[in-house]
Design brief:
The protein has about 210 residues and is of the alpha/beta class. It folds into 2 domains: about 90 residues, no CATH class; about 110 residues, Glutaredoxin. The protein has 4 helices and 7 strands; from the N terminus they run E-E-H-E-E-H-E-H-E-E-H. The strands form 2 sheets. It has a 5-stranded mixed sheet with strand order 3-5-4-6-7, with helices on one face. A two-stranded antiparallel ribbon has the order 1-2. The longest helix has 16 residues. The radius of gyration is 18 Å and the shape is elongated.
Amino acid sequence: MNEFRLRCAVCMIVLLGFAHGCGAGSTHGTITPMSVASRKDWKACEHGVPEEVCVRCRPERAAKFKQRGDWCPEHDVPESQCLKCHPDLDFSPPKQPPAQADVKEIAKDGEDLPALEPHRVPGKVTIFDFYAAWCPPCRKVDEHLYPMLDKRSDIAIRKINVGSWDTPVAERWLEDVPELPYLIIYGKNGQRIGAIAGAQLADIDRAIAEASR
């Protein structure tokens, strides 16, 4: 896949696509959701990650990460636990949408998604949210949008878990996208309103307002 620049919208750290990590010329693995904690009240171990998944606390878990390609050879830990390469990693479970909200995941692990149009919801603002479980700005957008769904039934969110930057869905949709999340918004009439990269909350609100007309 072409080299990407994934910019963390929280701390503005630039990570050069997953073909490169923090060391120039070094080869790194794929960040998967395997290191995300299973509980909101998770506690960090001495290595700064959830103890339940930490391979330094539980070396027997390393093989599963390596099978998924989630491994940083430079620091001998999973890429999804390498805080030296990715100090902005978020291990907390993603925020859950309101129970009645129209939120569905249409790609769960980076599988290809040839077209968005079949997933538009007639009569609703449809937001296609390309995200990753380890992405802090993606959490920020969820925290902004989900309370809105408590008050409005005319918004549908279709989430696409890209997994990493070299999955089929990322290769199809994110080649020229500088950062996650990436939102594509359609109006109630089915017309595309626009696309927004990053946790640009004011831009997202403006696009939703336009799509609601």
